[in-house]
Write a structure and sequence with these properties.
By secondary structure, the chain is an all-alpha fold. 79% of the residues lie in helices and 0% in strands.
């Protein structure tokens, strides 16, 4: 073993798994959720913001087209730190373009750059996770990984949105708080780039490939896709990837608008800082508990034993917004309780989805195949999300959330089709 291999063997995953997945989730939250809240506060309609921000999923959909090059060129470790630096740059560009007169078009263009950098970072980070941990460690840390990924997202739509709302109110501005928020995220990525340059281990499997001819690269690129689409059970697996998150794909686009819109529009009439506070307190507690419990359950009994309970858990969370849309409570404690249930159920149920992607990606091209899986996951989020704004505007929030509840049939149904090894995820005796 080399000196770096020995160092990697001693370095605990606790030093880098939490920070790596916090850094993976934050730009995704900036592109997919913070942008929607910001655009809603700046007067963009539900139909427009849902349609255009859903297109921002496209880099995650097509990232398998360049994921083999992340496998071939440089190391996963190099790609992680390089993309984190590019994310720092793109976040600062968003801050610069928010005050401009054509902010909607300009910020969307920069969000596209951020989305491509974030998608590439995902490829490298997920590949690094699988190369740096054993199968059992992957199962143990999948809850921690998901937890910190979700914490970063809750921090984004929680603490950072609260900050943006409070600054906008204090300075009587629509844009000042958002500028500061994106500057803070940019500075964070500068810091995390330096940190990961020192603490990320050097797994033996994460080595630079020898120089290859263009024909070799093309041949391996084609082999990556061939071996993926000829895997046993590929059709059922794709159905699972596309449909497991069908209710969430629509729900997530309209939750901020529902919470921000007034009673005359069928919403709850919260302010931006109240929305951030709700998701930054009980939301993060529910998500943490759900993610930790899900990871521990899967590590003890395996994915197969918990697949159906986790699917039911993820589906039933839709009921909370059906209740909120019809009851429209004014008491914050009722909204807090519903958000806690929704976040706990989501954190618990999402564990099964992530584990299944790891399970199906196993093999020679595990990094590229995992990227293909997440590409289909993004497609399953993109297409339903594009029309969610129009559905909410047409049917009203109450009718829209009822429709999301109906879509839960797809989430539960696909779990009866997939086959998972009973031993996957269990601790070896």
């Amino acid at each position: 073993m080399t000196e770096s291999d020995t160092t990697a063997g001693r370095r605990s995953p606790w030093w880098w798994v939490p920070t790596l997945y916090f850094a993976e989730g934050l730009p995704y939250m900036a592109v997919m959720t913070i942008s929607g809240i910001m655009y809603k506060c700046l007067g963009i309609s539900n139909t427009e913001l849902a349609f255009y921000t859903s297109w921002l999923y496209l880099p995650w959909v097509v990232k398998p087209l360049w994921s083999p090059f992340v496998d071939i060129v440089k190391t996963k470790r190099w790609w992680v730190t390089a993309m984190q630096m590019l994310l720092a740059l793109s976040l600062s560009l968003v801050a610069l373009t928010i005050p401009a007169s054509g902010f909607f078009q300009l910020t969307l263009a920069v969000f596209w750059l951020m989305a491509f950098a974030s998608a590439t970072h995902d490829i490298a980070a997920d590949g690094f996770y699988m190369l740096g941990l054993s199968e059992h460690q992957q199962s143990v840390f999948v809850g921690i990984r998901s937890l910190f990924y979700r914490i970063s997202m809750v921090a984004g739509q929680g603490a950072l949105v609260v900050l943006a709302g409070l600054l906008n109110e204090s300075y009587h501005s629509l844009t000042f708080g958002w500028v500061v928020t994106f500057c803070i995220m940019s500075l964070f990525f500068l810091g995390v780039t330096v940190y990961h340059s020192f603490v990320l281990p050097y797994p033996r499997a994460d080595r630079m490939h020898t120089v290859r001819t263009p024909a070799d690269v093309a041949r391996e690129f084609a082999e990556t896709f061939r071996t993926f689409f000829t895997k046993p059970g590929i059709v059922v697996a794709l159905l699972f990837m596309l449909l497991y998150r069908l209710p969430e794909a629509q729900l997530v686009k309209m939750i901020p608008s529902f919470l921000l819109d007034g009673a005359e529009s069928g919403g709850l009439g919260l302010t931006a800082d109240q929305v951030g506070l709700v998701y930054g307190t009980v939301g993060v507690i529910g998500l943490m508990l759900g993610g930790i419990v899900g990871g521990l359950c899967a590590a003890r009994n395996g994915l197969k034993a918990w697949l159906h309970p986790m699917a039911w858990s993820m589906s039933l969370t839709c009921l909370t917004f059906v209740y909120l849309a019809f009851a429209r409570p004014t008491a914050l404690w009722e909204i807090y309780a519903c958000v806690f249930v929704e976040q706990f159920g989501y954190g618990f149920g999402f564990t099964a989805y992530m584990l299944y992607l790891i399970y199906f990606s196993a093999g020679r091209f595990k990094t590229a195949h995992y990227s293909l899986c997440t590409g289909f996951m993004a497609l399953g989020m993109m297409i339903p999300g594009m029309f969610s704004g129009w559905l909410a505007d047409t049917a009203g929030y109450a009718g829209f959330f009822v429709w999301c509840m109906v879509c839960c049939v797809a989430t539960i149904g696909v779990c009866y089709l997939v086959k998972v090894s009973p031993s996957f995820g269990k601790k070896k005796q």
